[in-house]
Amino acid sequence: MIMGATALAGCVQIDTPDKPIEINLNINIRQEVVYRLDGDAKKLIEQNSEIF
Amino acid sequence: MGKNVMRMTKWKPTGLALAAVAATAAVAFAVPSAMAQRDPAYAAARAAGQVGEQPDGYLGFATAPTPAIRALVQDLNIKRKAAYTASAQSTGSTVEQFAFTSGCNLIAQTKPGEKYQTPSGAWKTRDGSPPERDARCP
């Protein structure tokens, strides 16, 4: 077990990434999409006023 | 007991009874318009600034909620998600995209005194000036 782990550890190479890791949770929401959906969002809010 | 039953069986429609029927019908007609209004408890929580609009299109708590307010907001957020999901499908967008766009509008529509969350996550009380919104909001 220990022997195997040691052998495996010998094969693992960890390099630092060239570019910084960027985590942006909002990456899927682009401004052009928001502008496109704006009219439909307004309609939804108006037609379902009891939940907004 | 038996006397009461007898009396009931002999009871005939009167003007009063017809008025009662008419009143019931009026209430039945009034229900659809009442459905389109905010629940009074929700309206009160909004006005009191306990509940506010988040940039993601859902309601949040500006102050620690009571169990009743927590339950009310969870229920509304579930209904909002269902509405966003249907609209996302019909517009070919994701639920998050549609919810976010709605959030832009809902924050813009807050009334003075109501709470909203800024892009940095802070809760602010709406005043006369435009609200602080995400740069992507129209």
Give a written overview of the molecule.
The complex is a heterodimer of chains A (about 50) and B (about 140). Chain A is mainly alpha-helical and about 50 residues long. Helices cover about 50% and strands about 0% of the residues of chain A. Chain A contains 2 helices and no strands. The longest helix of chain A is centred in the last third of the chain and has 17 residues. Chain B is α+β, with helices and mostly antiparallel strands. Chain B has a domain of about 80 residues. Helix content of chain B is about 55%, strand content about 10%. Chain B is built from 5 helices and 4 strands, in the order αααββααββ. In chain B, strands 2-1-3-4 form a 4-stranded mixed beta sheet. In chain B, β3 and β4 form a beta hairpin. In chain B, α4 packs across α5. Chain B is globular, with a radius of gyration of 23 Å. The chains are: A mainly alpha (about 50), B alpha+beta (about 140). The interface between A and B is medium-sized, with 21 and 29 residues.
Keywords:
heterodimer, A: 52 residues, mainly alpha, 2 helices, B: alpha+beta, four-stranded mixed sheet, 4 strands, 56% helix, 9% strand, disordered N terminus
Reported for the largest beta sheet of chain B, the result is: 4 strands, mixed
Biggest interface reads: A-B, 21 and 29 residues
> What form of chain A results from the Cα inertia axes?
elongated
Number of strands of chain B: 4
Number of alpha- plus pi-helical segments of chain B: 5
With strands numbered from the N-terminus, the spatial order across the biggest sheet of chain B is 2-1-3-4
Strand content of chain B: 5-15%
Give the CA-CA distance, first to last residue of chain A.
59 Å
Whole-angstrom Rg of chain B: 23 Å
The class by helix and strand makeup of chain A works out as: mainly alpha
Oligomeric organization of the protein chains: heterodimer
Helical proportion of chain B?
A: 55-70%
Shape by Cα distribution of chain B: globular
Helix content of chain A: 40-55%
The secondary-structure element order of chain A is HH
H/I helix tally of chain A: 2
